[in-house]
Amino acid sequence: MTNLTTKLFRPAVVLLISACFGSSIAQSRKAPPGGRTAVVIDERLAAVRSTPSLSGVLVRRLGRGKLVAVRAARQSGDGPIFLLVNLSSRTQGWIEREAVVAPWRVGDDQRLLRMIRGSTEFDRVTRARIFLDYFSRSPARVEVLQLLAAAAEEVAPRLSRDAARRLGGNRAETSEASYFLNYSGLDRYNRQGVRFVFDPGGRQFHYDGAAWREIVRRYPRSSQAEEARMQLARLAELMSKR
After folding, report:
1. Is the separation of the CB atoms in 205 and 159 below 8 Å?
2. How far apart are CA 63 and CA 220, in angstroms?
3. What is the mean pLDDT of residues 42-51?
4. Radius of gyration of the chain (CA)
5. CATH T-level fold of 15-101
6. How many CA atoms lie within 13 A of 202 on its CB side?
7. Residue 88 has pLDDT above 50, yes or no
8. Residue 63, CB half-sphere, CA atoms under 13 Å: how many?
9. pLDDT higher at 171 or 93
10. Helices 141-167 and 223-240, interaxial angle, to 10°?
11. Does the CA dihedral 145-148-154-160 come out positive or negative?
C-alpha cells in the first residue's frame, strides 16, 4: 500500500453506536461488507466513479447518510484524493474522500463539526444526526447536541406557519393538535429522531428537548448544560399552560 493508504488506516477507535438519543436510527442502517465503514456527509461530492478521477464514468450518486465500505485510497491526477468503496457486495467505485467521514479516521469528528456549524435548519439536523450516531466518543458530542437542539427550535416557527396554512379551515371533528402533529413537514425530522410538541394556545410547534435532556444527563458540568436547563424550564412552562 502507498503511504497515503497506510496513513488512512490508522488503528481504529472502537465504534459504539449511541445507546441514548436516537440510536435506533443508526442501528437500522447496515454497512456493506468488505471494508471499514464510512458515511456520506456531502452529497454534492458523492459521485461514485469507475476510476479515481473527476472525469471517471459515473457509477452512482449517493445521498447524505449512505454507508460505504472503504477499501483503499489513491491520489488522483486531477487533484482530489479518492477512496475505493464498496456500495454493496456486488458494486464498488471511487468517491472523493471529502464526501465522507469515518469514525476510525483521526480528525473526522472535527471536520464534520465544522460542517455542522456552517449548516442551517434541516442540513444541520441531518449532519448532527450522523455525528451523534457515529462519533459517540468524541469530546465534541455535547456541542453537537446543542447545535441540533438549536436548529430544531429555530425551524419550529416556520413549520408552525406551514402547518397552519395547510390546515386552513377544512378539518373534521377532531382536535387541531392532531392535524398539526400529523403535518407531513414533520416527517423528515421525525426520521432523524427530532420530534416536536404542539402548543395549542399559540398554535406553535416546539422542539421536544431530547438533546437538551441528554446534555443535562450526560454532561451536567458542561457550559452547554446551563443553557439546556434554561431551555427545558422554558419548555415546561409553555407546556404547563396547555
Report:
1. yes
2. 35
3. 96
4. 21
5. SH3 type barrels. (2.30.30)
6. 13
7. yes
8. 2
9. 93
10. 30
11. negative
Cell of 66: 449512505
* H helix or E strand, kind and range, residue 81: strand 81-86
Q: Apex CA 89: angle with CA 83 and CA 91, to 5°?
A: 55
CATH 2.30.30.170 domain range(s) in the chain: 15-101
pLDDT in tens, 145-164: 999 999 999 999 999 999 99
CB atoms within 10 A of CB 170: 7
Q: Which residues touch 8 (CB under 8 Å, ≥6 apart)?
A: 70, 73, 105
Q: In the 3-class helix/strand/coil scheme, how is the chain assigned residue by residue?
A: CCHHHHHHCCCCCCCCCCCCCCHHHHHCCCCCCCCEEEEECCHHHCEEECCCCCCCCEEEECCCCCEEEEEEEEECCCCCEEEEEECCCCCEEEEEHHHEECCCCCCHHHHHHHHHHCCCHHHHHHHHHHHHHHCCCCCCHHHHHHHHHHHHHHHHHHHHHHHHHHHCCCCCCCCHHHHHHCCHHHHHHHHCCCCEEEECCCCEEEECCHHHHHHHHHCCCCHHHHHHHHHHHHHHHHHHCC
Provide the grid cell at 4. 497515503
Q: Grid coordinates 471499514 are at which residue?
A: 36
